[in-house]
Amino acid sequence: MVEKSIDQATLKMLKKAQRDGIETVWDRLAAQEPQCGFGQLGICCRNCNMGPCRIDPFGDGPSQGVCGAGADTIVARNLVRAIAAGAAAHSDHGRGIASTLLASAGGDTADYPVRDEAKLQALAAEYGIAVEGRATAEIARDLANAVLEEFGTRKGALQFINRAPEQRRAVWDKLGITPRGIDREVVESMHRTHMGVDNDPVSLILQGMRTALSDGWGGSIVATELSDVLFGTPRPVKGSSNLGVLKEDQVNIILHGHEPTLSDIIVHAARDPELLQEARARGAAGINVCGMCCTGNEILMRHGVPVAGNFLQQELAIVTGAVEAMIVDIQCVMPALPQVAGCYHTKIISTSPKAKFPGAEHIAFDEHNAMETAKKIVRIAVENYSNRRAEKVNIPADQMEYMAGFSVEAILEALGGSLNPLIDAVKSGAVKGIVGVVGCNNPKYIQDNSHLVFVRELIKNDILVVGTGCAAIACAKAGLLLPAAAEQAGDGLRGVCTGLGIPPVLHMGSCVDISRIMTVAAAMANALGVDIADLPLAGAAPEWMSEKAVSIGTYVVSSGIFTILGTVPPVLGSQNVAELLTGGAEKVVGAVFAVEENPAAAAKLAIDHIAAKRKALGL
Amino acid sequence: MHIVIIGNSAAGLAAARTVRKVAAGAQITVISDEPGPAYARCLIPEVLAGSRDLPGIGYVGADFYRQYGIELLAGQTVTSLDVEKRELTTANGRSIGYDRLLLATGASPVAPDWPGADLPGVFTLRKADQAAAAGRWARDCASAVVAGGGLVSLKAAYALKERGLPEVTVVVKSPHVLIKQLDAQSAALVEKELAKTGIKFVYGVEPVAAVKGPQGAVQAVELADGRRLPAGLVMVGKGVRPNVELARRAGGRVDKGIVVDDNLATSLPGVYAAGDCIEVTDMLTGDKTTSGLWTLAVEQGRCAGYNLAGLPGSYPPPLTRLNAAQFGALPFISAGDVRGGDETAVYQDGGVYRKVCFRDGRLVGFIMVGKVDRAGVYTALIKQARHIAGRLKDKVAGGTVTGADIVYSRTVPVR
Amino acid sequence: MQEVLVDKERCLGCRSCELACAVAHSASKTLLGAVGEAKKPLKRIFVHQTEAGKIPLNCRHCAEAPCIDACIAGAMHRTAEGVVTNTGGPAECTGCWMCVMVCPYGVIRSEIAQRLAVKCDRECLDEAGEPACVRACQTRALKYVEVDDFSREKRERFLISLKS
Question: In which residue ranges of chain A is pLDDT below 70?
């Protein structure tokens, strides 16, 4: 099973899963293989009912769909639809947070007080909302309304794009890809990819870029920034990671999905004395709340809550037999969970009205009765402790400490209030550059292997890594989020990390928090008076799988940052589209995608790219 | 049991192979009047062209005869046959006994009856040594005339062009080339492709004489209309005639070819016949005709092989018109009756031509030029002789029918 | 011998077999590599739409193969393993299309420019000895099985039916 993961906890639980007769994501992948080549190449189209159509990639069959769309059009349309779906996911997440802020400001819920007033005021100022002498609730209401307005705004462009340097905005304006409204771009992408609308691959991909930008500089920033307002801006915090964080003698609750809205409350609810009392009454020593995936990242960043694992470990957490409840909200939650849980005592509780799971218990959650619902859910978990069967419990011992919580504000604090020390370190070459390593796990690739090989290679070469999402959890489990990991870094980076007491890999949050990375990149460019594309930066999604990652990669590239994909996107059915993304885009947005499945080779691409950018800057 | 096969080409070899397969212990002797092991007769134009030598058109592996335990008596002509004694005699006086005999004696080119037909430089194209000789002769020639517009003639003309002769003229009595296989439209495409190489065509006229030059060899061909075409080499392609003399002299029944029954047995006891030397019944017309196709010879040889080995099997009336070739970049296939029929569907787009012919709701023939994929499905439909209607007919007419349509058809084939 | 059998009720027409066949006959042997190759690989299995449904069809490697009979060059032959192929035999294919003319399944391709007949050659077996098309079939509409006498006979009856 070495080919499935390099995570020992995963491997142990896979063995247990096999013994217990549990089918996991790897088994289902094997059952799917061989996967459809047309899909892999992006040359099947189901957009209308004259189809489904597919193009023969070897020129040995149909070269056009029924409507006449060729491979270029079909591949581009499919790509744009994936971007739209990814952007929609992040942006809808952002809308949820903004709605919660509005409810909080309107006094509709007492459970979500503004926890970061300074950030509220800073954001209000960014939006031109008066703050002097106004009550927090009033400012919050105005900000929430202003942000919600961004989804359907008619003012021509999104507010947050103004964070980007002028040069970058000029590029977007020139190409006509400045995002005009968060919802609008997704809607227009769906429209354009409808049968018989936009058929020009270049035009389609430009719209894909605009849609992605509406995520990166719209929906995702909204999600990040307003979450900080409501739940607190992350500060460096310590905790532990991997399946070993589950406790044999406690009620284990796993919070899985993406939003902080419920999970943050559950963290508080689990401290309720009455519930703790109940847990003890049932023989548990306490209530152990753990995270999983990006919901895990949200509460890890803010509270140092232990994180039980990343994407490919969601089923395996249940396989430990020690999880009383897995509470899920939205995104990346495998529909297989209730089936796996059915073999143990674990309850899967879905909470979002947007995301229901056959076989799971649904407890609708909304911000108006947050604490009440949270307690109800925790109580179900506590009560379920009595159903736990000791003979089925096997928690792997593997766990690793981490230091996380590196919001932009936290980084600035660590640097003494300004980015200058970091910029100086980059100028001096102590830090050669910065690479954002983000994204998912993908069972087609050895779990965490690409992340870790890639990241270790970078830090060895004095490249500071900033991470989010499942990539960051992979780093956490491997000990790379500890200041001690600076030992694995090159001399320059080690010196910087040791001096500041920070790890060589900075955990910046969940996948919407890639917006934090964009904010840092923009700030660096502004400080140097250059475009983002001029900076020694790169992005990478070594094990990506989701449509959100497609949107992320596209907005990162569209923002001028070279991005390496470690899993092959379904675009190779059109050489023209593939060439545009990996070559032609350079002249247009100043950055391209690269696809490299070998993480060591991918690291070399990033290192070479950073060296070239440094040289161009005269560094 | 000693099985003797006269003929070392398609039918003879297929028979020998089959006998060996089903009668492991049989003694097999193959006698051939040609020297050396079997070769691909249809490829001898390549020898004429000089693109291959004789070993280059070998039809079996070097080890074939030893591997199959076949005694090959090459370069020996059988002169007589005593069916009472079950014994044959070769030209060099050797007597060979047999238990069962197969006549796979093939066919010989029809020699022209015009004056000068025996001049040096006048050739026919049937055997490898003829092709080699004509090729050698062609080295010193600037011009050639090919008499006849059939497949062998056109292959010869093409080969002579490949060899580099500046002037090659094909004299065709019919209004267009390949009169047996193609219609005027498709023949025009083939002619155009051949004309690209510089081959010239003269239609509606026949040679009447070969004209002797100062060196005693041919130097021109005189046509019926009085024209004279310069010709350092003349290739005569006027068809072939079954080699029936041995059977006839032994008292066997002979009509258009050696007459055989359903089991390919001749009228002579213990004697079978297969290949170009026999007469068959055309499956479409019911007419008696000569056979003369490599693929039929192989089928017959195999069928004869079973019978020789004592496993009776019948040979049904074959489709006798069936041919494929490619000139330049233009492939074509023709099968069955391509000009009869009561309904035709024709498609032409540039160099691609397709014609399918139906009679009484059955497919009876087709021509494909330029694109030939899935032609075998059409051939199969002709052979099945089934009623074709509805969507299947649309597909057949439209050129989109596939093997799946007939293999998995709901329609039961009718005879 | 083992043959590729079609369970036509199960074919969804996804054409994965076609792709897998082409990839198995490519230089790189991988899908993502094959799409970039200058000389596009050729499939030797074809998914057809018929009145009876979707049907993948490739060479049946007939017991008395008409293509072998018809081959005027002596290239088409049967290997010791029972595979009917025109490569690696006693002679080279000359592209005369006789095999194309007689194959009732229509599964021999004519590569006109190359003067080469191209067909299923079983040069695609994986470590488990399974052909690429069978391996690629998601619904098990294609199976690689030892054929019983009944099925073989049924197939031979079809061929005999062609002999009028």
Answer: 1-2
**Token reading at B279:** 């007469």
Domains of chain C listed by start with CATH number: 1-59+120-163 (3.30.70.20), 62-119 (3.30.70.20)
Q: Do C50 and B405 touch (CB under 8 A)?
A: yes
User: Quick check: C35 and A40 CB within 8 A?
Assistant: no
Q: Are strands B95-97 and B87-90 parallel, antiparallel or unpaired?
A: antiparallel
Correct CATH for A71-231 of 3.40.50.720, 1.20.1440.60, 3.40.50.2000, 1.20.1270.30: 1.20.1270.30
Give the position of tokens 């009944």: C150
Query: How far does the CA of residue C55 sit from the closest CA of chain B (Å)?
Result: 6
Closest to A34 (Cβ–Cβ): which among C16, C18, C42? Answer: C16
Q: Each residue of C104-160: pLDDT tens digit? A: 999 999 999 999 999 999 999 999 899 999 999 988 899 998 877 666 666 666 666
Q: Which of B176, B208, B236 is the last residue of a domain?
A: B236
Tens digits of residue pLDDT in A529-584: 999 999 999 999 999 999 999 999 999 999 999 999 999 999 999 999 999 999 99
- DSSP-assigned letter for residue A252: E
Helix (H) or strand (E) holding B48: helix B44-49
118-157 in C: which are within 8 Å (CB) of B? none
pTM above the 0.90 mark? no
Quote the minimal CA–CA distance from C136 to chain B in Å. 20
Q: Do C101 and B372 touch (CB under 8 A)?
A: yes
Report d(CA A606, CA A600) in Å as an integer.
10
Nearest CB partner across the interface for C43, out of A36, A60, A573: A60
Q: Domain residue spans in chain A?
A: 8-54, 71-231, 243-392, 415-617
| Residue A469 CB neighbours (<10 A) | 33
Cα(A93)–Cα(A227) distance, integer angstroms: 10
Is residue B318 situated within a structural domain? no
pLDDT higher than 70, residue C164: no
CA distance A333 to A384: 21
Any catalytic annotation for residue B357? no
- pLDDT band at B411, cuts 50/70/90? very low
CATH fold group of domain A243-392: Rossmann fold (3.40.50)
Q: Which segments of A are annotated as binding site for [4Fe-4S] cluster?
A: 36, 44-45, 48, 53, 67
A60, A565, A567, A576: which to substitute to probe chain C, counting the most C Cβ within 10 Å? A60
Judged by a CB distance cut-off of 8 A, whether residue C15 touches chain A is yes
Number of domains in chain B: 3
State the complex-level ipTM.
0.93
Tell me if A481 sits within 8 A of A518, measured CB to CB. Answer: no
Give the residue among A346, A264, A254, A329 at the shortest CA–CA distance from A292.
A254
* Cβ-Cβ contacts under 8 Å, C109 against chain B: 373
Which among C19, C40, C135 has the least Cβ separation from residue A37? Answer: C19
B78 and B37 assigned to the same domain:
yes
Taking the Cβ of residue C14 and every Cβ of chain B, the question of whether any pair is shorter than 8 Å is answered with no
Alpha-carbon torsion A573, A578, A579, A584, what sign?
A: positive
* Cβ pairs A/C, distance under 8 A: 52
